[in-house]
């Protein structure tokens, strides 16, 4: 059963990401849409030999998600070579937070909760939806043994999209990493979540998950230099507090407020 579930998830990655990107490009060509701001991921880099990652770091993805995104990027680049499209590819780091005004937040479908972001799992544990938090992997080559990631507040991510759209030019491709330039470990993230929610989350430490890489964080120099963008919301605990307020006000997602 576990193998069947894993296979279904892998197929979903390639269908939803790679195949559907091709569908979108075909629709754009058919209807004369000339500008594409593409949501990609730093997972396309896999486990780089050097930190921080830059836009010229070799892309060697090690899991289906990163591979599916890399394939989608390649398709986009091939399309752009034969058209006058304006293309911006934004490679996100791990997204956290919510709209500061309380309008939008993270509400994944029930069947996707188990495979969602660590922030969602932390909040589910804080609300008692799940009995505790499962941290997979404590033997990575990092300062505390857990994975290190670059966490980007969704408000900063929105700003990056706006600036990318403003700078998009026909027959031109811009590729940018969107991150803070600083890595935080999973243990640090969990402690910040405990402080943000005020809940003593039960944490179980389990063996590492296949396909996870030890450390990745970005060098945001290029996006600052070319788009005049830099992350403003870099206090991890404050971003989690904002998201937690939304979670408490929308206990049934968008079905209640």
UniProtKB/TrEMBL annotation:
Domain NAD-dependent epimerase/dehydratase, first and last residues per copy: 13-179
Keyword annotations from UniProtKB, A to Z: Carbohydrate metabolism, Isomerase, NAD
Family matches, as InterPro entries: Epimerase_deHydtase, NAD(P)-bd_dom_sf, UDP_G4E
Superkingdom of source: Eukaryota
Record GO biological process: galactose metabolic process
UniProt keyword annotation of Nucleus present: no
NAD found in the keyword field: yes
GO molecular function: UDP-glucose 4-epimerase activity
Cofactor: NAD(+)
PANTHER family: UDP-ARABINOSE 4-EPIMERASE 1, UDP-GLUCOSE 4-EPIMERASE
Family: Belongs to the NAD(P)-dependent epimerase/dehydratase family.
Protein name: NAD-dependent epimerase/dehydratase domain-containing protein
Organism the protein comes from: Hibiscus syriacus (Rose of Sharon)
Lineage of source species: Eukaryota, Viridiplantae, Streptophyta, Embryophyta, Tracheophyta
């Amino acid at each position: 059963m576990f193998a069947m579930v894993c296979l279904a998830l892998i197929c979903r990655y390639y269908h939803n990401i790679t195949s559907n990107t091709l569908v979108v490009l075909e629709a754009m060509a058919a209807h004369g849409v000339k500008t594409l701001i593409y949501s990609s991921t730093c997972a396309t880099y896999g486990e780089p030999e050097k930190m921080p990652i830059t836009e010229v770091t070799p892309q060697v993805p090690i899991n289906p998600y990163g591979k599916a995104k890399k394939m989608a990027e390649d398709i986009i680049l091939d399309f752009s070579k034969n058209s006058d499209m304006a293309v911006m590819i934004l490679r996100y780091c791990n997204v956290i937070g919510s709209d500061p005004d309380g309008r939008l937040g993270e509400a994944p479908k029930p069947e996707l909760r188990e495979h969602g972001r660590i922030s969602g799992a932390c909040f589910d544990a804080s609300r008692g939806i799940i009995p505790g938090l499962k941290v997979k992997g404590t033997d990575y080559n990092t300062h505390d043994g857990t994975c290190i990631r670059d966490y980007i507040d969704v408000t900063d991510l929105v700003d990056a999209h706006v600036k990318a759209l403003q700078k998009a030019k026909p027959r031109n491709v811009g590729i940018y990493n969107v991150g803070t330039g600083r890595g935080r470990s999973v243990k640090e993230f969990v402690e910040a979540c405990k402080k943000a929610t005020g809940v003593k989350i039960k944490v179980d430490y389990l063996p590492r998950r296949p396909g996870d890489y030890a450390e990745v964080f970005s060098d945001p120099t290029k996006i600052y230099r070319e788009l005049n963008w830099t992350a403003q919301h870099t206090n991890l605990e404050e971003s989690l507090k904002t998201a937690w307020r939304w979670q408490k006000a929308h206990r049934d997602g968008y079905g209640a407020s």
